[in-house]
Amino acid sequence: MQGHEQWIYHAKIDGSGRLVIPAEARERHHINEGDTVVVIDDAQGLRVKSFDQALAEAQAYFATLAPPERILSDEINADRRSEAERD
Fold first, then answer.
1. Rounded CA gap, 62 and 51, in Å?
2. Per DSSP, what are the bridge partners of residue 41?
3. Are 11 and 22 in contact (CB under 8 A)?
4. Vertex 13 angle, CA 12 and 16, to 5°
5. Distance (Å, whole) CA 19 – CA 11
6. 19-48: string of b/e by CB count within 10 Å (b at 16+)?
7. pLDDT tens digits for 21-75?
8. Region class of 71: left (phi > 0), else alpha (psi between -120 and 50), else beta
């Protein structure tokens, strides 16, 4: 992983199935008590991301599906108005 730092932590699962994320990692990723995190379970294993990080990645992905000058929400709203006028 050129250009990417990596930290490895050891953590235990408690009797309720909870995983404690080390404070240093929580601070680095701005995860606070009560925040929602996203757990991804795939062929690579389990990965934990902050909600903001997962949201930013999803937004970046969907931004690649249409050119920047095309505003999909305007198209959806126009379709809805057109359907409402037909009803």
1. 16
2. 46
3. yes
4. 150
5. 7
6. eeeeeeebeeeebeeeeebeeeeeeeeeee
7. 999 999 999 999 999 999 999 999 999 999 999 999 999 998 888 777 888 788 8
8. beta
Instruction: Report the distance separating Cα 75 and Cα 81, nearest Å.
Output: 10
Neighbouring residues of 81: CB distance < 8 A, sequence distance ≥ 6: none
Q: Is the pLDDT of residue 2 over 70?
A: no
**Predicted TM-score of the model (pTM):** 0.61
Higher pLDDT, 70 or 13: 13
Cα–Cα distances in angstroms (integers) from residue 36 to residues 22, 74, 79, 82, 87, in the given order: 16, 30, 34, 38, 41
Q: What letter would DSSP give residue 71?
A: -
Copy the structure tokens of residue 78: 């126009």
